[in-house]
Amino acid sequence: MPPAESYAWDSLAVGTDLLVFGERERIALRYSILTNSWTWLADAMNTPRVSFGSASVGEKAYVAGGAYSSAEMYDSKTHTWTPLPSMNRARWKCSGAFMDGKFYVIGGLRSRFELLTCGEEYDLNRRSWRVIDNMSRAQRDRRGSSSAPCSCEQ
């Protein structure tokens, strides 16, 4: 990977590419397994983010969160980002998964001390999000203290 200064990195694989994002100075790189080469991206996300949920299926990748409620889709054939409808709740440090034709964004934090116990499901056909409450319960951290859980209710 080309040298780049950042203290936080996130990545996702889509198609034959690996996309790497750095928080500092909105760094974005693409690695192609076909050419074994790195490219600096001018076509980075519409909303630069780190600590987001992501998942890919085929040539498309979906990202959401990273302290925002916004979401977007990346097409690895055209190297373009398309905004998606926003989630119901902003979240960061969340997880993403793609299953049964839907993109799921699960858990994460609403603030430094508030764990989200809900998830959200994005239906690609309907282009809408649905809240899934009570997906997890609050967990204790390594020090033994627990953060206050919160649901997705506004």
UniProtKB/TrEMBL annotation:
UniProt KW Repeat keyword: yes
Keywords: Kelch repeat, Repeat
GO CC, alphabetical: nucleus
One Pfam match: Kelch_1
InterPro entries hit by this protein: F-box/Kelch-repeat, Kelch-typ_b-propeller, Kelch_1
PANTHER family for the chain: GALACTOSE OXIDASE/KELCH REPEAT PROTEIN-RELATED (PTHR46122), REPEAT-CONTAINING F-BOX FAMILY PROTEIN, PUTATIVE, EXPRESSED-RELATED (PTHR46122:SF25)
Protein name: F-box/kelch-repeat protein
Species annotation: Aegilops tauschii subsp. strangulata
